[in-house]
Amino acid sequence: MExxxxxxxxxxxxxxxxxxxxYRWKRKKIIPEEWFIKKSVSTGQETFxxxxxxxxxxxxxxxxxxxxxxxxxxxxxxxxxxxxxxSRKYIVENIIPEYILEMFENKYSKxxxxxxxxxxFIVIFKNMLESGSFNFEEIISLIEKIKENFSFIKDNxxxxxxxxxxxxxxxxxxxxxxxxxxxxxxxxxxxxxxxxKK
Length: 198
Description:
With 198 residues, the protein is α+β, with helices and mostly antiparallel strands. It has two domains: 5-78, Multidrug-efflux Transporter Regulator, Chain: A, Domain 2, CATH 1.10.1660; 85-197, no CATH class. The protein has nine helices and eight strands. The protein has a three-stranded antiparallel beta sheet with strand order 1-3-2. The chain has a three-stranded antiparallel beta sheet with strand order 7-6-8. Helix 7 runs antiparallel to helix 8 (136-149). The longest helix has 16 residues, at 116-131. The chain is flat and about 55 Å long. The chain starts with a strand and ends with a helix. The model has no long low-confidence stretch (mean pLDDT 86). It comes from Clostridium thermobutyricum DSM 4928. This is DUF4004 domain-containing protein. Pfam families: DUF4004 (PF13171).
């Protein structure tokens, strides 16, 4: 199956990074040169990228850039380290209040280091808990569903969670605006996966 591509313009819009940042990361070899794919279009030439790979890479860069130098990032990615690990201490001090992390750990398990996917699940747990719209069982049930299907979820997708007549339901979409609006269904939370993964 042919790899799905994303244009440079779309990439900059989705990730909210600048042209300069993108090419600085290219010069530093944080983003491989072979991912910059030139293609002929009706207006001339345009640059495209392998969508899944570039979005995942930029997500990792944005998460780490304030704590790791560009040279360290370059070394890390050149060694094909695909998932960084973050210490529990760093998570508590910079990402999640400790009492929320402890609630998550009481359901799953306590670790001294968490990989990037696990941190994402913890952030979703926090967002749902702090919204005040869900009971604990609903939060855990949804996180389990996200875990089961995580490999199929794209970075540019948004999870919209609603309740209608007391029943919780949710769906993934690539657009925030709704094509068909149901006034009886209350939107409880929108989870933008790219924003969370930052």
